[in-house]
Amino acid sequence: MSVVANSAGEVRFDFDRRRRTGLDETVFAQGKSPSQLEAIFELARTQGVPLLITRLSAEKHASLTDGWRESLDYCAVSETAYLGLEASLHAVGSPDAARARVAIVAAGTSDVRVAREAERTLFFNRIGTVNFFDVGVAGLWRLTQCVDQIGRFPVVIAVAGMDAALPTVLGGLIGSLIIAVPTSVGYGVATGGHTALNAILASCASGITCVNIDNGYGAACAALRALQIPPSPAGPV
User: Fold this and answer.
1) Rounded to an integer, what distance in angstroms lies between the CA atom of residue 30 and that of residue 32?
2) Contact assessment for residue 93 and residue 127, using Cβ atoms and an 8 Å cutoff
3) Residue 9: strand pairing partners
4) Counting beta carbons within 10 angstroms of the beta carbon of residue 126, is it exposed (0 to 12), middle (13 to 18) or buried (19 or more)?
5) CB count, 10 Å around CB of 134?
6) What is the pLDDT of residues 63-114, one digit of tens each?
7) Cα separation of 80 and 18, whole Å?
8) What is the CATH number of domain 97-228?
9) Contact indicator for 161, 210 with CB cutoff of 8 Å
10) Global pTM?
11) Euclidean distance between the first and the last CA atom of the chain, given in angstroms as a whole number
């Protein structure tokens, strides 16, 4: 097992995870100090592998030393960053949206932060996406205008807060795998996304799967696992 530690012993990075699971270890920046993050970056640079960093706030990004900060491809909306991805993409080619296999559907503009985290995670893993944003059920016509397009994708990530009706509505209209992401968007009884989470779990549309509140990264990883499953052989069962 390829686990590499830094000299202080605070970081033990698993560079062998992709071989075992098909997914790279990702750096969850929340709760890590700038010095710990930079130790991880140095390990990755030494190993010659790219990194995906999530939950990297603008304040923490600004606190990194100039050299590391300038080395990151940073997105303030999703609070994600790439380290060393440009060379990797040059070697294998960028994701092609024309051949995208995942649709990302966000109920409202306020849900875009989480949707962008899913999009950036999939891009890091060479999976193109097509986005359908601000198509929540409060203006149902917006969803019905594009539902046929959404249904052409084998995997759909549906991001919604408040009452999170969007995944259920999609579940009654299309046959794609739907990975629902409840968000913490909403007033009062929305209680930080718990109402959305419970609504998805109680959905009457069969077969919807659900990840944790605001976890666009987790939804993208679920999509990646699904896309690795080989198709069933043709012929009668």
Assistant:
1) 6
2) no
3) none
4) middle
5) 15
6) 999 999 999 999 999 999 999 887 666 565 666 666 789 999 999 999 999 9
7) 20
8) 3.40.50.1970
9) no
10) 0.88
11) 39
